[in-house]
Design brief:
heterodimer, A: mainly beta, Protocatechuate 3,4-Dioxygenase, subunit A, four-stranded antiparallel beta sheet, globular, B: mainly beta, five-stranded mixed beta sheet, 2 helices, binds fe (ii) ion
Chain lengths: ~170, ~240
């Protein structure tokens, strides 16, 4: 008889006491860039107490096996805004399956009894068309997963928790 | 050529909270309104950051020795094991905790509860599970605190726990409660878990074997992370 997984509970409003920001270890071999955005609720009000964690492969498409390289953690400010420096991950390969460059993201906040999981993809990336995960997303909603280029090496990607423009969240 | 990816098991119904839980008011505008999209496991979810004891400084698990003096309150030892659904210990899990002080006040600018701050208590600690999945914290018992969710709402005493396990898919943030707390019954966050057996996994147990003479009461809190599928997804 398997054990029951410990249930999730919200991080609440005071997580910054215990969950401190972690900057991504930049890889000199990768294309340096920054991603900024806002976390918004169902009324499009800013979520000023959200925590975001990111996980990505190196420029070679390999995930770190025995360190925290590739992982970062940041919180939103009062205006719901966040920004982090990163580099474009390579294409992850598993067998004959090849994935488009992407960053996996976990979102925690007061009001979220469980965290949410989503992904950031890059615009102008032809491999998006063949990405097995993007292809599971109904076409009209795919744009919520693709960052928008707003300046050289600067991308905008918002997280809308609820409503018509809701970001796609995954069960994984 | 195809490669076998062993994913992580999905939770049994009602053993995890829903996103929308109307009696928890903060969930009303923050819970997604569209259904989540189920995806097969990929390398991106079955991998994750790894941690070891070397990532920690000595004494990070002792919240009573971060200042010149000792914090006020009832000193406690919180200890347990991190295992997977098959009961196998998981080592190298980064466990981060944060909590209110003994008076029910967080050392956080947003917390305006009119209870005293304790200059000798910051309320956070870290540990990494050992080869048997064990971890230990020394702290003080947090106080209950009021919140604005409903009339005369008080959160039961709790310690926030964050666990970075072996994979992105096993990430868990939860709260540990104390046995016999009369506030549990009316707490919408605790009661968001419909399955009673699962819900009660969040309540630690008083433990004589952890209790240390003339020093501290002991509470045991074992944590179960998602286990791996027995059969691979062809990918
Ligand atoms: Fe709390």
């Amino acid at each position: 008889m398997p054990l029951t997984v410990t249930p999730s509970q919200t991080v609440g409003p005071f997580f910054s006491i215990g969950l401190h920001p972690v900057e991504l270890a930049l890889d000199p071999g990768g294309e340096q860039l920054a991603i900024q955005g806002r976390v918004l609720d169902g009324d499009h009000n800013p979520v000023g107490d959200a925590l975001i964690e990111t996980w990505q492969a190196g420029p070679d498409g390999q995930y770190s096996q025995n360190s925290s390289r590739g992982w970062s953690r940041l919180a939103t400010d009062d205006s719901g805004s966040f920004r982090f420096s990163t580099f474009k991950p390579g294409r992850v390969r598993a067998g004959n399956q090849l994935y488009a460059p992407h960053i996996v993201v976990a979102v925690f906040a007061r009001g979220l009894l469980r965290h949410l999981v989503t992904r950031i993809y890059f615009p102008d990336e032809p491999s998006n068309a063949d990405d097995p995960i993007l292809n599971l997303v109904p076409e009209p909603r795919r744009a919520t997963l693709i960052a928008r280029a707003v300046a050289p090496r600067l991308f905008q990607w918002n997280i809308v928790l609820q409503g018509r423009e809701e970001t796609v969240f995954f069960e994984c | 050529m195809s490669i076998a990816i062993f994913g992580y098991r999905r939770p049994l119904p009602h053993t995890q909270p829903p996103y929308l839980h109307p009696s928890y008011l903060s969930s009303l505008k923050r819970a997604p309104s569209q259904s989540l999209i189920a995806i097969p496991p990929t390398l991106s979810e079955v991998s994750g950051p790894r941690f070891s004891q070397k990532d920690l400084a000595n004494g990070e698990n002792d919240l009573t020795r971060q200042h010149h003096g000792e914090p006020l309150g009832e000193r406690i030892i919180v200890s347990g094991r991190v295992v997977d659904e098959d009961g196998k210990p998981i080592r190298g899990v980064l466990i981060e905790i944060w909590q209110a002080n003994a008076a029910g006040r967080y050392a956080h600018s947003v917390d305006q509860h009119n209870a005293p701050l304790d200059p000798n208590f910051s309320g956070f600690g870290r540990a990494v599970s050992d080869d048997e999945g064990r971890y230990t914290f020394i702290t003080v018992k947090p106080g209950a605190y009021p919140w604005a969710n409903h009339y005369n709402a008080w959160r039961p005493a709790h310690i926030h726990f964050s666990l970075c396990g072996p994979a992105f898919a096993t990430r868990l943030v939860t709260q540990m409660y104390f046995p016999g707390d009369p506030l549990l019954q009316s707490d919408p966050i605790f009661n968001s878990i419909a399955d009673e057996t699962a819900r009660n996994k969040l309540v630690s147990t008083f433990d004589w074997t952890l209790t240390t003479p003339s020093y501290a009461l002991g509470y045991r809190f074992d944590i179960v992370l998602r286990g791996r599928e027995q059969t691979p997804m062809e990918s």
